[in-house]
């Protein structure tokens, strides 16, 4: 039961030791085989050797941590752009001329006489008498005595002393020491080597043949007969009789009434304008027990209307008069007359004709052609390079420093002061006064007057008149016009298409393989075999002997390689690798 828990651990160790892909033998000799499709590359002493044998003759150098760099072939798909000419058919629209018979409307003008009635205004002068009333102003002068009191100001100068306090600033200077830390940068230069791989382009020119089709136009001449109609114009002279009216002047005499008159100068008295003024009534004195003195109370203000002085003006008045007068007038009387007017009539006579037209028809015939295109293919070949870079490292060192700061303090100290002020006191003294006011009173007295007015009366009298008007009419006319007929045909045209063609490119990529170096031991076992060279410990072999009681010998450790000493017999443990001494 104590040995059962070791079984899973032993199974894991056996699986790990059997799954190693890279085998190390012969005290450090190592080789790696490359890709079978694109050549082989072997890493020896840190340098890539192209086309080396599958097994390296010398020992490969390893890094400090036991890792190795090999070049592995990787297949990559590259897309190239190739232009290809294709053909497509599109519908093209074209137009042909065609003669069509059409009808249009032609306007013309015709004259005729129209009788109409007009209302003519007739004016008549009339007279009427108007009675009206006028208010005539009558002015009257009055006098009035007004007693009033006036307050006269009396000024008196006085003096008083004022005590006040002023805050006076007092300044004081102090010093203070401040300690602070400054970080100073310290720069250090270092160097490191960088290994990198550069892909160098290798260009290769190739040729390919492209077959394409070109549409070649073939022209063909055809003939067709067209029947069309031509309209000839035929003129014909005619005469028509027309009745018209003429206005003949006629003289006559009539008596009219003419308005006249003359200007007369009249004198008129105009009352003065009404004015508004404010009048204050006399005030009263009242004893005030609060202040122990008499207080003057002014009277109320009232607004009264006062009429100004009358004015005498002169104005001119037009006095109309009526006079009768004979005048000579002209009037127009209608008179009917007849006249003959010649005119021409045009007629369109159709005539059928025939013509032959020649036209060309174009056909597109496909034709196969061939052209050769040259294109360039680029391959990237890896190249190992080394460069040395210098860089700077910055570190900060703390440094203690000190500085002295000066500052000022201000304090406000109170200070008492005194000043003298002069001021003026005003008191009012009452003084009685008297004045006489004159005012005018206006009264409006009504007065009756009469005036005569002339006015005109208008009457509308009907009157018959005649006028000639133009009437617009239309007639139908046939004509021939050329219109375009829309037709469709198919045209083949070439166009270019750019497409991507995939191509497989093989390139080498550096790969780091992690594998520890084997250790060779010099001590021999009791059977003449040395310690295993695969890194297996002797203690592990002794543990297996204790657990399972296996056979004696160095092969009990379970290593993948044979002993490196000169044994004559084959190993008894069934190891996979043959010994390196020729047994």
TrEMBL record:
It comes from the Bacteria. InterPro entries: YTV. Keywords: Signal. It holds the Pfam family YTV. Residues 1-24 form the signal peptide. This is Uncharacterized protein.
């Amino acid at each position: 039961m104590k040995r059962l828990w070791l079984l899973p651990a032993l199974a894991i160790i056996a699986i790990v030791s059997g799954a190693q892909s890279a085998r190390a033998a012969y005290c450090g000799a190592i080789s790696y085989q490359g890709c079978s499709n694109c050549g082989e590359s072997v890493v020896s002493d840190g340098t890539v050797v192209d086309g080396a044998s599958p097994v390296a003759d010398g020992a490969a150098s390893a890094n400090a941590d036991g890792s190795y760099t090999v070049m592995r072939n990787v297949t990559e798909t590259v897309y190239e752009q190739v232009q290809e000419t294709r053909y497509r058919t599109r519908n093209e629209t074209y137009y042909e001329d065609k003669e069509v018979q059409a009808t249009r409307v032609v306007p013309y003008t015709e004259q005729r006489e129209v009788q109409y009635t007009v209302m003519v205004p007739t004016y008549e002068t009339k007279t009427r008498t108007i009675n009206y009333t006028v208010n005539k102003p009558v002015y009257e002068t009055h006098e009035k005595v007004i007693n009033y009191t006036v307050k006269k100001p009396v000024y008196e100068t006085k003096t008083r002393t004022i005590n006040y306090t002023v805050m006076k600033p007092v300044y004081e200077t102090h010093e203070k020491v401040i300690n602070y830390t400054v970080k100073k940068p310290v720069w250090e230069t270092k160097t490191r080597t960088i290994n990198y791989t550069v892909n160098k382009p290798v260009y290769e020119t190739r040729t390919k043949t492209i077959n394409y089709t070109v549409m070649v136009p073939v022209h063909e001449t055809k003939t067709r007969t067209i029947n069309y109609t031509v309209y000839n114009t035929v003129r014909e002279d005619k005469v028509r009789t027309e009745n018209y009216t003429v206005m003949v002047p006629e003289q006559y005499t009539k008596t009219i009434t003419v308005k006249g008159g003359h200007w007369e100068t009249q004198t008129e008295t105009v009352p003065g304008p009404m004015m508004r003024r404010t009048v204050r009534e006399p005030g009263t004195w009242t004893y005030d027990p609060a202040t122990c003195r008499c207080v003057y109370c002014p009277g109320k203000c009232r607004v009264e209307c006062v009429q100004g002085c009358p004015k005498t003006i002169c104005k001119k008045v037009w006095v109309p008069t009526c006079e009768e007068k004979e005048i000579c007038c002209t009037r127009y009387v209608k008179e009917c007359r007849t006249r003959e007017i010649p005119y021409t009539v045009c007629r369109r006579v159709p005539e059928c004709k025939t013509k032959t037209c020649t036209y060309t028809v174009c056909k597109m015939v496909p034709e196969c052609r061939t052209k050769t295109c040259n294109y360039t293919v680029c391959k990237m070949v890896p190249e190992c390079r080394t460069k040395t870079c210098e860089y700077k490292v910055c570190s900060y060192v703390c440094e203690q420093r000190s500085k002295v700061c000066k500052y000022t303090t201000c304090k406000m100290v109170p200070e008492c002061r005194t000043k003298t002020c002069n001021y003026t006191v005003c008191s009012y003294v009452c003084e009685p006064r008297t004045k006489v006011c004159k005012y005018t009173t206006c009264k409006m007295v009504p007065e009756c007057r009469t005036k005569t007015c002339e006015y005109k009366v208008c009457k509308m009298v009907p009157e018959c008149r005649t006028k000639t008007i133009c009437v617009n009419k239309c007639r139908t006319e046939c004509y021939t016009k050329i219109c375009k007929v829309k037709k469709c045909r198919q045209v083949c045209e070439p166009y270019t298409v750019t497409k991507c063609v995939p191509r497989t490119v093989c390139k080498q990529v550096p790969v780091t393989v992690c594998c520890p170096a084997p250790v060779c031991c010099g001590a021999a076992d009791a059977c003449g075999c040395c310690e295993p060279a695969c890194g297996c410990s002797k203690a592990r072999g002794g543990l297996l002997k204790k657990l399972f009681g296996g056979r004696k010998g160095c092969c009990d450790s379970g290593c993948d390689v044979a002993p490196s000493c000169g044994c004559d017999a084959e190993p008894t443990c069934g190891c996979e690798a043959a010994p390196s001494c020729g047994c």
